[in-house]
Amino acid sequence: MRTSSMLRVLTTTVLSFAALFAVAQEAAPAPKERFFEVDSTLLYAMVALAVVQVIFIVSLASIMRTMGGTGGWVKRLMEKSGRAAGALLLLFVAGEASAQAYKGEANTMTNYEAFWWLFAINAFLFIILLVQLNILRALTRAVVGADEKPMPSVAKGENWADRLLKRMTRQVTLEEEKRIELHHDYDGIRELDNVLPPWWLWLFYGTIAWGVLYMVNMHVINVWQHQDNEYTTEMAQAKADVDAYMATLTNTVDENTVTMTDDAGVIASGRGIFTQYCTPCHGADASGSETSVGPNLTDVYWLHGGGVKNIFKTIKYGVPEKGMISWKSQLQPAELRALACYIVSLEGKGGATQKPPQGELWKEESAASDSTATRSDTAKVVTVDAVRIAMQ
Are 119 and 28 found together in one domain? Predict the structure, then answer.
């Protein structure tokens, strides 16, 4: 009799899930955005979980019916619990069972919706299981007649943390404090003759060992570099780094930081720029002529100052009132420097038809402020001010 009742419950459950799958079909239009995709495999897993829970519910109901005796509300409740579980499953899908034809996404249960229906069903069945287990536990206590008794407390010994702390501090227990008590007191306050904690002693010994190691390595065998030598080495490395950095800042040079160089590549670049832009006014050899507009650039007379810095400034900003345009918008700072260095290198190389001198005589000794008046490559001399200006 019980077997046939269980079969009826399982059959009802399976049919209820079949009815749910009958309406759980994807709609024709494109699905809406979901948190995750649901396929048939997941739905089958949810159905299997629900079937397993129903089996457990029916089994627990049979056990509780046996323990509850032949009469009373427990027996009636347990007899109907299996049928109630199947009926609840049918109630979940009753609203969708009448959908006979496709009427749009609003009237069709998708796999996503079926998943959440099955999730709710499994959650409900799980709650039933928890209630049954609680009832079964109460019935078991009633049948056995033994209430749960609290376990006697067992005195706990020292754990590893307590033992470690005791070893690190060598702290005396309260019972043994009388043994180390000094025989004098101050206003009733007694003093204990405690030993120094081992952690403090080992830290003190460690500082002594480190001092000896430092002295031997720094002043005896010189394994570690002395601070003075270390400072000198680091400053030399910093200067090398600054030089390398300054070499990458050719596009940020201005009239204050420009330096003279006789590098062949720089001079060749300046010659090409001069040939392209400057020959119409200053002549092919930069010495001009009687009919040229610009002055002679190969003698030692300058209208706006000689030296690489003054020449760079004149090229950069121009002299509009005399027809010399500004080239800062057409040439890069590195190109302006190359052109200025090329012009400086032309001193004394004018041709026979060069233009007569104009301006004032530029003497090297009068250019004390021009750190680049000499022909040597002073680009390697880096000062703190030059580095600061280049970094701006």
Answer: yes
Question: What is the tens place of the pLDDT at every residue in 22-59?
Answer: 444 444 444 455 666 778 888 888 888 989 988 988 88
Determine the Cα–Cα distance for residues 387 and 243; give it in Å rounded to an integer: 9
Counting runs of H as helices and runs of E as strands, what totals does the chain give? 12, 4
Question: For the chain, what is the domain count?
Answer: 3
Q: Which pLDDT score is estimated for 315?
A: 92
CB-neighbour burial class of residue 286 (10 A; exposed 0-12, middle 13-18, buried 19+): buried
- Asked whether residue 355 falls in the same domain as residue 266, the answer is yes
Residues ≥6 apart with Cβ < 8 Å to 297? 282, 286, 287, 288, 343, 346
In a domain, 132, yes or no: yes
pLDDT band (50, 70, 90) for residue 16: low
Of 209, 224, 239, which residue constitutes the final position of a domain? 224
Helices (DSSP H) in 170-226: which residue ranges? 198-219
Domain of residue 195: give its range.
166-224
The residue among 51, 46, 41 whose CA lies nearest residue 14 is: 51
Contact between 267 and 345 under an 8 Å Cβ cutoff? The reply is yes
Distance between CA atoms of residues 43 and 123, nearest Å: 15
Task: Give the tens place of pLDDT for each residue, 140-154.
Answer: 877 776 555 556 666
Taking CA atoms, 53 is separated from 47, 58, 128, 218, in Å, by 10, 9, 9, 78
Instruction: Write down the pLDDT at residue 392.
Output: 40
259 lies in the same domain as 374: yes
- With beta carbons less than 8 A apart as the criterion, state whether 64 and 139 touch: yes
Q: Identify the pLDDT of residue 251.
A: 66
Please say whether the beta carbons of 273 and 339 come within 8 A. yes
229 occurs within a structural domain:
no
pLDDT confidence bin for 386, thresholds 50/70/90 = very low
Checking if the pLDDT of 381 tops 50, the result is no
